[in-house]
Design goal:
By secondary structure, the protein is mainly β. The protein has no helices and five strands. It holds the Pfam family DUF4926.
Length: about 70
């Protein structure tokens, strides 16, 4: 599995960002890769409205992977 963060990856914050009112573990979507070390992440509420968009260093993000396991 690649560790490269790509556009539209779902990510979680590894540290709180109180200046943006984001807590550790908050989930967002990568909307743009800015460089090899940073990307722009968008955070939305349950209503779909964006409440934060900011540049974040890749070291502060964890890519979330979803696996669909089919019952036997």
């Amino acid at each position: 599995m690649s560790n490269t963060i790509k556009t539209l990856d779902v990510v979680a914050l590894l540290r709180a960002m109180p200046e943006a009112q984001l807590v550790q573990g908050q989930v967002g979507t990568v909307v743009e890769v800015l460089s090899e070390s940073a990307c722009e992440v968008e955070f939305c509420g349950d209503d779909g409205n964006v409440y934060a968009t900011l540049a974040i260093k890749n070291q502060d993000l964890m890519v979330l992977h979803y696996s669909h396991i089919q019952a036997a």
